[in-house]
Amino acid sequence: MDAVDTIGWGVLAPGRIAHSFCRDLAQVPGARLVASGSRSRERAEEFAAQHGGRAHGSYEDLVADPDVDVVYVASPHVFHEEHTMLALEAGKAVLCEKPMTLDTGTTERLFAEAERRGLFCMEAMWTACNPVVRRLLALLGTETHGSPRLVRADLGFPVRRDPADRLLDPALGGGALVDMGIYPLTFAHLVLGEPEQLRAVGTLAPSGIDLEVAISGRYAGGALATLSSTLTAATPRTAAVATDRGLFTLERDFHHPTRVHWQPEEGPGSWLEGERPVIGQGYGNEALEVQECLRAGRMTSELVPPTQTISVMRQLDDVRRQIGLEYGASSG
Ligand SMILES: NC(=O)c1ccc[n+]([C@@H]2O[C@H](COP(=O)([O-])OP(=O)(O)OC[C@H]3O[C@@H](n4cnc5c(N)ncnc54)[C@H](OP(=O)(O)O)[C@@H]3O)[C@@H](O)[C@H]2O)c1
What we know:
Rossmann fold; single chain; six-stranded parallel sheet; alpha/beta; binds NADP nicotinamide-adenine-dinucleotide phosphate; 9 helices; globular
């Protein structure tokens, strides 16, 4: 961190999500995009021309950049372990895109390594940092809004891309579950906590990736969730939380809301916003959370704690086993 206490960000793998993230980062107070690092210098230069900062022609040079305080790992999931390790070994804090890795054991090892080195590490689960989601969570359990009994959440859209695209490629950890299904699962986890039981069905493509997945969950006290995701159809992309006092509804896209609707059992409904503004699309709020943690000297985030990331990873492992999904098949 420099004299004026700005936080220097380094973007590792300047692909699709890195562009969205950096558009929001430009609106985050105290954030400075210091550098981006690509496997290709040309791509890094194109990215830097658009968003600012220096361009590095390798990930190694990016993590070695002395002005980078925190590395944003934005490569496809299968590389998150390698690239998070690279940043940690260079002594950098890490914000790693979701899913943190493709299995529980690897995710646990990364957090253990960050802890051992005394470095901050967080999964980029922006939904958990969204101010509207935080407001909803704060209202649950109150006398007025009641306790959650049923959660419904869905995320899907038809993916019409080249079969070599990350989302469809088994070798790059493609499929609906870890790309989209992680959001309904995380949302249910935020609202209801650790599931006691998940039951899942899925449809696999000939390539082996999952095209769609439907999950039923049972949580403490008998609360239930129905969750779905797909790569093949235009689904509602909404969520609802039914309590014993009324109903919260999150519009499309539920995983980065700008408001939430509350309909009490009796009387008129109302729209609620967050206590803080949504920054950009909401990626700004996760960046802000990282910065607040770094400034406070915290190694982990309370909004996206490792326990939550690891629990959801365990749930993904469980669902994956139930639907017969295996990663690592060759993409040819
Ligand atoms: N939070 C969200 O809303 C959100 C949304 C979309 C995606 N994501 C997550 O972000 C991650 C990246 O997704 P994306 O859609 O941005 O991916 P992408 O555009 O397909 O790829 C990101 C970058 O990864 C680098 N890369 C390194 N090795 C690669 C390889 N072998 N094949 C392809 N690319 C490789 C490439 O950059 P260089 O070659 O230039 O280094 C590429 O531009 C995923 O884990 C995904 O789940 C999150």
